[in-house]
Amino acid sequence: MHIAVIGAGSWGTALAGVLGQKHQSVVLWARSPKLAESIRSTRENHSYLPGCKLPATVCVTDNLAVAAGDTRLIVLVTPSHAIRQTAAALAPYVSADTLIVSAAKGLELTTVKRMSEIIADELPLAAENIAVLSGPNHAEEVASGHPTATVAAARSRKVAEFVQDTFMLPFFRVYTNPDIVGVELAGALKNIIALGAGIAEGLGFGDNAKSALMTRGLAEITRLGMAMGANPLTFAGLAGIGDLIATCTSVHSRNRRAGLMLAAGKTIDEIQAETSMVVEGIRATKAAFQLAAKYKVEMPITEQMYEVLYQNKSSKHAVLELMTRGRTHEVEEVVLNNLHWQ
Asked: Residues that bind NAD(+), according to the entry (predicted)?
């Protein structure tokens, strides 16, 4: 089976390497001809994933027709803000039999739509064959063959299991889930909490603070997810708490690193200028802030992160406001109506 991986960042390159270990014809598309030539000649993505060689079964091109023509499976791995444009460019090569896997994590700022919704907008022929791949999956570890688990979500069990079978390797375990909404929201919103985790670390706080932030962050992500029709159990799984833990604690996490820089007083522009990769949490914070207002969901950590990023609030002031909020119950937003005091 010919498989096209669209996007040659760190995650796209890692997924191409995974697929190339199982399938004989994988094409990795890079937007930059210079990057494509570099990967092709060295078999390594020095810009985004240095030290990891691609198998010989992976071809590299900057020609979208070469990559996506005559393929049944397209894996979209561009940054979230480029998904709509890239999906539109793929339209000539997509039919009702094409399966699209979205491996991007984020929300579109102008519409606050999830990635699968954007893909369905631009590729209506494939709307019923869209799957989402998400979980605690740092590209560096996947490319090194470290044991990893992920989730393939789709409305159709047949589609989800096809993706599961396509990606499954002894070191890369894939679980299926019918909850596309929950899996996508979890993947996008955990980046906001990771920014906060980086801030907590940068301000010198300990494990208590980070643990509380992650737990309460998961609570507000779940709150919004339920309001949008997601299954709350999804947030207790790999795409939810699994990805949240990895992104908030790992040295590989660019969102955590951005939080450290925010704690040091750097601005969004300074942070983005210092990294060659997209910090998805910065955009996701603005989109989630809009979604919280739309669905009338309380998201205090997201609100404080929004004010730090977009209203020049100091990180220390944001932490103080979170700690001095009015008292509340821990589980009221989920199950309080089913509990009774003794």
From this structure: 7-12, 139, 254
Report the number of distinct structural domains present in the chain. Answer: 2
Q: Which contacts of 10-13 are long-range, i.e. CB under 8 A and separated by 24 or more positions?
A: 10/45, 10/48, 10/49, 10/139, 10/140, 10/277, 11/77, 11/103, 11/137, 11/139, 12/75, 12/77, 12/78, 12/103, 13/39, 13/45, 13/48, 13/49, 13/52, 13/54, 13/139, 13/143
Q: Which of 178, 204, 223 is the last residue of a domain?
A: 178
3-class secondary structure, 109: coil
User: Per the annotation, does 105 bind a ligand?
Assistant: yes
Domain residues for the domain of 192 are: 181-338
31 is in an annotated binding site: yes
The model's pLDDT over 30-72, given as tens digits with 9 standing for 90+, comes to 999 999 999 999 999 999 999 999 999 999 999 999 999 989 9
Q: Is 209 annotated as a binding residue?
A: no
